[in-house]
Protein: Hemerythrin-like domain-containing protein
Amino acid sequence: MSGPGLKNAFSHAAIHEAALNEAIELNELLLQLWKKGDLEKGKEVAYIAVEHWESRTLKHADAEESGLYKELAEEFPQLKSEIIALTRDHDTMRFLVKELKELLAKDGFNEEVMARFHALVHVDMFHNQEEERILQGHE
Structure:
């Protein structure tokens, strides 16, 4: 069973906003380091950003999938395709984080790393918008 914060559209949006704002700030810091050419510090911050995505957004995604989405699917069977799409968004974010870890270990901090972090933010923004729309309609 999911906690009350996940089922309430306002609370859920606040959770999303906090994690996303932190990710955007980390991306801005990474971009500054990239522009300065500080690849060593960039790599360190990139690993911190990966940990952020794993501990905040993907852990939240796990909680949604194990509780909220199952409850919504049972209560509102017509949401099946939307829940599948939301889960696919989570899988896309997991894939990008996995790629980031591999890229950082193999090649260090580079343009591909920056591109993945930007992609994560954009996938998450769209995902949050869709999820919050669904929750508002089914509170």
User: Anything to note?
Assistant: Residues 39-75 form the longest helix (37 residues).
